Amino acid sequence: MELEFWRVLPRDFSIHTARLKLREVTVEGLELMESEIDDEALKLVDADVDIILYGCTTGSLFRGVGHDKLIESRIEKLTGKPAISTSGAVISALRFLKAEKISVITPYIDELNVLEERFLVGNGFKVLDLKSLNIIRNVDIGRVTPNVIMDLFYKLDYSSSDAIFISCTNMPTLNLIERLEEIAGMPVLSSNSASIWAVLKRLNYGFGIKGYGKLLASIRN
Description:
The chain has helices at about 1-10, 25-35, 35-45, 65-80, 85-95, 110-120, 140, 145-155, 175-185, 190-200, 215, and strands at about 50-55, 85, 100-105, 125-130, 165, 190. The protein is of the alpha/beta class. Helix 3 (about 35-45) packs across helix 4 and helix 5 (about 85-95) crosses helix 10. The two termini are about 25 Å apart.
């Protein structure tokens, strides 16, 4: 996700990252990753960052509705810094876009697709279709090519949806969003575009960012 953040954020922003271990994207892997939050969050405090993002979609939703808020609260209490989770950012972004019915693309295995759909439905959305790549190794998700994502997009039924959500901060998709919006005729957001949008909104950044879809272009104070 770092590459997409560097690509989009204004040049006067600095990005400080603390990597959590995740080899296989499974519930067990996400549980182990979550156990490292405290140590890594405290490292970011030393850089006196303005905000901390827990940049994992399924990692902040696999425990169910409210998991995103628990992660954010945990980081805020520990560090004294504002915190955002990716899954919480996605929920906020979908509500901002007034999307009630959504179609979803993920790279995940079935056990995580079930949990993600349950989380989205529990937050008030209707998931009309979900297509996935069924990838388990995190490094393989990061190597997914645009052509693979486009092939999956063409299999997705979004005919009755209000928006399309592409899940996973490790799957590079930002450069595809405007093209997908033109084809689908509706907003398309990714885990990273929602995360960037939420961070900039929280920091009161007042200028829309063009070239990456309607969500990022919409930013205003």
